[in-house]
Design brief:
- The protein is of the alpha+beta class.
- It has a domain of about 70 residues.
- About 20% of the residues lie in helices and about 35% in strands.
- It has 2 helices and 5 strands.
- A 5-stranded antiparallel sheet has the order 1-5-4-3-2, sandwiched between helices.
- The N and C termini lie close together (about 10 Å).
- The relative contact order is 0.19.
Length: about 110
Amino acid sequence: MKPLIIFCILVLSGCSTLEKPGVVNTSTIRVSNSQCGPTSSAKVELERLGETLKASALMKVTSTETVIVSFYSSQSKDRDWTVMIDGRNGISCMILWGKHWLTAGQES
């Protein structure tokens, strides 16, 4: 699971190395319009699917702009998970999702 978390962090930050850049290059993150919508609607949909917020972090996009990166997962048999970016404009984009979420220390 640790490699998956590291991969997700690298994808989200647009980094090609483990060094933290001063400003994140978000040009490497591509999403279609179908993955984005009003933040409130996206959160309601994730809750409807049984996913709850597990963690969130502030990510610097430019020297003056930030977004919130949120990690959701479910307790379902498949342990679905979603990573969402929330913009200040009230729009959120679901950028990563999958199955088999494990919390650190959790047995598989």
